[in-house]
C-alpha cells in the first residue's frame, strides 16, 4: 500500500510538471507595411481545463514602453482602450480563433501608430499558477514604398505580330527584401491568367495557358537594368487578346525563415487587340468510285484548299473506320501504324504527299476486309522560334465508304461460234501465221505482249484453235495457254497458277488475231515463243476435222534485274558544324525504271558504338519506314528518291552530336511475283561514310582587366563580369562567382547562375551567411553580369573573379557547354571607416563659489558617421591624486551612469546632463563643494554598426581639460563699529544693538553673542568712558603693548540654528532678545542697576551650509564697545537734565527764549565737556537720549521673537 501511494505521488508530481502552462507567440521583429493586413499567431499549451482558452492582446508603444495599452480580447468586449475601441467594433481589428488553444490577431489596415511590442496574454484557467501566461513580440511598421508603373495604352496588333510591354518596379525599403514580378492577362470578367512571372528566387514560370510557349521561347520576361521588366510575346495569337498588366510583390524574410508578402501593387493595363489573319482552310476527300473487286487498286486524294499553302505547315492523318492508318507531319514523312506498316512494307499500300495541297493514300491490292469508311484529317501547325511545331486548327471532310467484292471462279474468252457446213472434198487450209512481239529483249519484270496473226487466202472455212508454247534455252517445250475451237481457254500446267492471278493472259483480239500477255516477266520466261494455229472445219457427219496447221515463233531475251546491280554512298560534307545541314547520296546502278522495286535503307553507327542500326528505309513501293532508334532524326531528316532513278538522298538539318557517326546505304532489289508476293533478288551494301559533327569554334572572350576596389564597410561591393565577345547571339551563359582569400589555396564558390537562370549558392555563401546579401543582375546588353554583395564586411575582403561558361542549344534542343573562361580578378579591400572623431581641445580654468553650478561641456566637432553611437565619459583628476576617476558616463543607448567619483563625493543628486544639439553634451554639477575641485575632461568613444548588426568601437578621443576650483565665499562680514554710548537711570532699561553692515553670502546664517567687558584685577576700567580724552588715548596705547586686561562675561548667545544659550547670571531674567531685521539684532537689559555700568560688545559669527548639508563657520566679527552708565537715584538735577536731551531742550530753549544768550554762554562753557562725550552719543552726533524704544512689548522672560524658527538659516 505504501508503494502504491508513492507511485501516485510520483505521478502527481510528473503530472504537475507536464501541466506547466506555456504561451508562445509569433517570433519577432516582424516588418510590415502601412495599409497591409497583418496576422500574429498565439497559442497556449500545458493547461488542464477547460479546452477552450481566451486570448487578450495588448501593446506597449515606443513612446511609453512601460505602459500597457489594451487592444482586443476574446472574453471581454470592454477590454480595448479608447484608441482601439472604434477599430475593434468596426472589425478592422479582431481575433480569429483557429483552434481551442490557438488564435490569430488580425489588423486589416495597419497604421504607423500600430508599431510596438505586442503581448498575448491568456488568463489562468487552472487552480494554481504554474508556467507562463503571456508572450511578447515586436512589430515594426514601415512605409509602403513599392511602386509599379506601366504606360496605359491600347495596341492594335495582327496575328503573328510580336508584342513588347515594359513595367517599372521600384522600392525604397531600407530592410532587405525581394521582389517578384508577374505579367497577367485579363479578358473581361474572366479570372486573370498569368502569362509569365519571375519569382522572388529568380525562377521563371508560366501558367498552363502559356507554359508550352514559354518553354519554346515564344514568351519571355527580361530584366533590363535594376527596375525595368520587359514582356515579349513573339507571335501573337487571337487568344492573346485582352488587357496586360504587371503585378509586383515585395517579400521580406521573417525571423522564422519564411518569406512574407509585405505589399502587392499592380500597374496600369495595356489593352491589346489581335486581328486574326485569313487562316481558314477547307479539306476535300476524293476517289474514283465506291465499288471495287478484290485485287483492284484504289486511290484516295485528300485535297487542301487554303491561301499561301507553301508558307504554312500542315499535318495529315488517314483513318479507316475511325482507326488511324498513317500520319504525316509538315516534313512529309509518313508514319504508319503497325498493321498497315506491314502492308506498306510489302508494297500493298502507300501514303505520300503528291503536292503542297494534295495528299494521297493508295492501296494497290484491295482485300475484301478493306471495305469501310475512309477519311483524312488536316491540322495546321505553327512553327516556333526553336523549330518546334504547335497544333492549331484541325479539319476533316466527310467519310467516303467503299465496298470490295470477291472475284468470280472462272475467267474465259468468249469466241463467237459460226455454224456452217462445208461442201464435201473442200479440206485444204490456206492460212499463214505470223508472230510479233513488243520487244525482243526486255528487262525482267517488264510485260511481254505477243500477237499471233492468221492470214487466209479467202474466207475462213472453219474455226481456229490457237496454242502458245515456249521453247526455253534447253529446248524444253512447255504449253503456255491455248484457245480451242469452242473459245475455251486452257492453261498450261506450269502456267495455271500465274494465269489465275492474271499474270498470263490470252485473248482473241480479232477473229484472226490472238494475243498473249505475260505480265511481270521473269528470267525463266526467256526463250522461243511459238504460236501453233490449227484450222478446223465441220465434216458432213457433223464432226470437226483439222484442215491444216501452221506455226510461227519469235525469240525473246530477258535481262535479269540483278545484272550490274551496285550501290555507292557519297557525301560532299563529311565534316559539319552544329546546326548545319548535310546530305547523303545513295547511288544505285544501273538506272532502273521507276517501276523496278528497290528498297534503300540508311544504316547508322553512332560515334562510340560498334553496331549499326536501321535509320530509315525507303521501301520498294516508295514508302518511308523509320527505324526503332531513329526518333531523334525524324523531325530533322528528309528522305527523297529521284524520279528518274532509284538514287536516294538523305538530308539531315540542324546537325548535332546525335548525328555524328558512320552511315551506310543498303539497297535491296525486289521482284513482285504473280501472286503479289515479293522476292528479293539481290542486296548490295555501300561503302561507309563517316560524318563528323563539330561544335562551333568558340569566340568567347571574358574581360581580363584587373581592378582594385577599396571601400568602407556597409557599402555594397559591385562586381562586374563582362563578356566581350560570344560565339552566337543565342548563347547563354553560366556565371560562377569565386572569392580567393590569402589563407586559402583555391577560390571558394559564392554563387552560380546556370545557363537557364537558375541560382545555386556556393558553400562559401552558406558558411559566411551571404545569401541574404547577394544580388545578381544581368544587364540589358546581355554580356554584362553583376554581383552585388550588400552591406560589405571586413571579412569580405579578398580577390573576386568570375568563371563564365558559354552554353548553346544543340539542334536536338539540349544545352551543351561550348567553352569556359575566367575573368580578371578584382581585389576588394573592405575597411572600417576612417576615424574622423574630433573633440574640442579648448582648455579652461574655472573658479566658482561653493553651492553654485558648474557646466562641463563636451563638444564633438566631427564624427566618423552620422549613424554612429557615442559613449561619453567624464572624469576628473583630484589634486595630489595621480589617477583619474570617472564622474559619469553616458552609454551608447543614452543611459546615464554614475562613476566611482559620484559615490565618493555624493554627486548622484547633483549631476545633470543635457544635449541641446547633436554632438554637444553638457554635464552640470549642481551645488558644488570644495571637494569637487579638480581637472575635468571628457572622453568620447564612437561605435559603429557592423553589417552583421553588431556594434564595435571605431575611435575614441579626449577633449581639452577644464580646471575647476571651488572656493568658499570671501569673508565680507562687517559689524557696525560706530556705536553710541548711553546713560540710563537706575531701574531703567538700556539697549545693546548689534548691526551687521555687510555679509559674505545671502544664504549665510548668524550666531550672535553679547559680552560685558570688565577690567581684570589690577587693571584699569577701560570699559567706562573717561572725562579726559587724553587719558583714554594713553590707555589704548598701553593696551597695545600689554596683554588685554579685559575680562569678558557673556550676557546671551544665539546660535546659527536660533538656539539660545544660557543667560549670564548677573542678568538672568532681565534680558530681552529682538531681531528687528535680518541684519539687526537687539538685546534689551531691563531693570538696570549701577552694577551694569560698563562697556558691552556683540560678536557675530557667519555660518554657511556646505553642499554636504553641513554648517560651517566662515568668519566672525566683533563690534566696538558700547559704553553704558547707569546713574544712581541720588544723582543731581543737572545730571538728570543733561542726561535727557528732551528735558534739556525743553528747559533751556522753549520755556526761556529770552534767556538765549545765557544758554549760549552755558553751552560755550560746556563745550569742552561735550567734545569729550561724543563717543558716547548716537549716530550722527545725536545723543542716546533721542533713541526711542521700539513699540514691541516682549516679556523679559520671552527670548523667542515671533519671526524666529529653531533651525539654522531661518533668521533672515
Automatic annotation (TrEMBL):
Domain Ig-like per the UniProt entry, residue ranges: 34-138, 143-249, 276-386, 424-534, 696-823, 833-941, 969-1115
Major subcellular site: membrane
Membrane topology: Single-pass type I membrane protein
Pfam families the record matches: V-set
InterPro entries: Ig-like_dom, Ig-like_dom_sf, Ig-like_fold, Ig_sub, Ig_sub2, Ig_V-set, IgSF_V-set/TM_domain
A Gene Ontology BP annotation from the UniProt entry: lacrimal gland development
TM helices/strands, residue ranges: 1142-1165
PANTHER family reported in the protein's UniProt record: IMMUNOGLOBULIN SUPERFAMILY MEMBER 3 (PTHR12207:SF21), V-SET AND TRANSMEMBRANE DOMAIN-CONTAINING PROTEIN (PTHR12207)
Stated name of the protein: Immunoglobulin superfamily member 3
Organism field: Catagonus wagneri
Gene from which the chain derives: IGSF3
